[in-house]
Design brief:
38% strand, mainly beta, two-stranded antiparallel ribbon, 2 strands, 34 residues
């Protein structure tokens, strides 16, 4: 998936993340860097 990431990353750089929260009713997910 594509999404915004806060922090010091150049635009378009790929990072590994892990899912930390998911709310299907609100269609929201949260990730943190792995």
């Amino acid at each position: 998936m594509r999404g915004r990431c806060t922090g010091d990353l150049p635009l378009g750089e790929r990072v590994r993340v892990r899912l930390t929260a998911a709310d299907p009713a609100q269609r929201k997910v949260a990730f943190e860097r792995a």
